[in-house]
Amino acid sequence: MTAPSSSIAPRKGGRWIEQWDPEDETFWKETGEKVARRNLFFSVLSEHIGFSIWTLWSVMVLFMGPEYGLTPADKFFIISMATLVGAVVRVPYTFAVARFGGRNWTIVSASMLLLPTIAAFIVMEPGTSFGTFLVCAMLAGVGGGNFASSMTNINSFFPLRKKGWALGLNAGGGNIGVPVVQLVGLAVIGASAGPRVLLGIYIPLIVVAAVLGALYMDNITSVKNDTGAAKEAVKDPHTWIMSFLYIGTFGSFIGYSFAFGLVLQTQFGRTPLESAYVTFIGPLLGSLIRPVGGWLADKYGGAKITLWNFVGMGAATAVIVVASMEESLALFTTAFIVLFVLSGLGNGSTYKMIPGIFQAKATALELTGEEAASYGRRLSGASMGLIGAVGALGGLGINLAFRQSFLSVGSGTGAFVGFLAFYAVCFGVTWAVYLRRPAAAESPTVTASEAKPQLSYAEV
């Protein structure tokens, strides 16, 4: 059997690959891997800058001293709105890849980052109204959508056996945009420069990302919006179960990324520079370890890694509660960074579970070969945008919980107690749905084929 070629033809104003079959090992070795890796690299670049712009206001609020006339609650609300918009736009961004092409949408989505960056450059000064800052933060939310379109695009380029690594690297490289913007912010604050310097650095970088995407990325003709797959994914309970678990991992990562510096300022009286010195460490380590989470999931199973990861997140949160009550900055900061690392690890393992779950469903339906692979790609691709969007809403919940906790008790302790309880629920759900041996499988009245759909999920 002849391996399909990867013919790239100009169409619809861009580079289009007419034939793409990454599951064919001959095609993958001869052509597919090189093309997939090239698209992965430039997808990471665009998504990286998208994350930086999305979380831009986690740095901006550190510049906003008493002269801005904003309370801590106002600042938490500003970053909450950026989180909200970033979560909501992930849904249309997911479907934009099939509508316009992965390369073409990368160009558009990268270029759109200019709007919130230039807007913030114009208004960032004392005397600007709270409402204006709120609108600018909401505009920055478009950067959160880049993740959904990028992950959907890269999911189409790689075979199932490589998805954990590829999706983990793609997401991890994008997530690093969070600590990078915070590091740049640290340098700007340390140099006693104004926030406009930070914004001025990112404007040309956005242009570079859009241009490189245009020059080196590709669209895949066979990737189309599948209304039937989308409807099936919405009806499938696993889409919503994984959305819930992703709230626990990615929702924690992005929520803490926005809030960490502001919590240090508000609860421990750190200056902007003192906060910036440590704010970037957690997101950086959490981003770097995300591909490791995907790799471990490929090797040992995503459900197993996710389960024990929630145990670790719960333990770290318990330490944070103690440190918060004892007002121990060193213990608080250390445990918070550990929590970041675990959230990043869990991001990789939970996202690897998605294609595995739908591949397991294909096997349970007795599909084989390309038919099974196609079913898995259709359903996992359709569900990823929704799961990513709902997961990101966890960041909104975290920031609103911090806001309420500081308003009620003057510290973040109450919020952390709530997070601890949530991680316990996530642990229970992971075990009950994906690792617990179904009682039905041991019943003599149930055939092996009837039990198979339940048992197969333990391998995801």
Notable traits:
460 residues; mainly alpha; 21 helices; 3 strands; globular
Question: What does the model show?
Answer:
Strands 1-2-3 form a 3-stranded mixed beta sheet. 56% of the residues are buried. Helix content is 80%, strand content 2%. The longest helix is centred in the C-terminal third of the chain and has 41 residues. With 460 residues, the protein is mainly alpha-helical.
SSE map:
Elements: E1 8-11, E2 14-17, H1 25-54, H2 56-63, H3 72-88, H4 90-100, H5 102-112, H6 114-123, H7 130-140, H8 142-157, H9 160-175, H10 177-190, H11 195-216, E3 219-220, H12 227-235, H13 237-268, H14 272-279, H15 281-288, H16 290-300, H17 302-326, H18 329-364, H19 369-409, H20 413-435, H21 448-455
Parallel strand pairs: 2-3
Antiparallel strand pairs: 1-2
Helix pairs in contact: 1-5, 1-8, 1-9, 1-10, 1-11, 2-10, 2-13, 3-7, 3-8, 3-13, 3-19, 4-5, 4-8, 4-19, 5-8, 5-11, 6-7, 6-11, 8-9, 8-19, 9-15, 9-16, 9-18, 10-14, 12-19, 13-14, 13-18, 13-19, 13-20, 15-18, 16-17, 16-18, 17-18, 17-20, 18-19, 19-20
Offer a concise description of the structure:
With 460 residues, the protein is an all-alpha fold. It is built from 21 helices and three strands. Helices cover 80% and strands 2% of the residues.
**Helicity, as a percent range:** over 70%
Low confidence ranges:
1-6, 9-13, 439-455
Main pleated-sheet profile = 3 strands, mixed
The helix tally amounts to 21
Topology, number of strands: 3
Q: Please state the structural category.
A: mainly alpha
Shape: globular
Order of helices and strands: EEHHHHHHHHHHHEHHHHHHHHHH
| N- to C-terminal distance | 31 Å
Provide the β-strand percentage band: under 5%
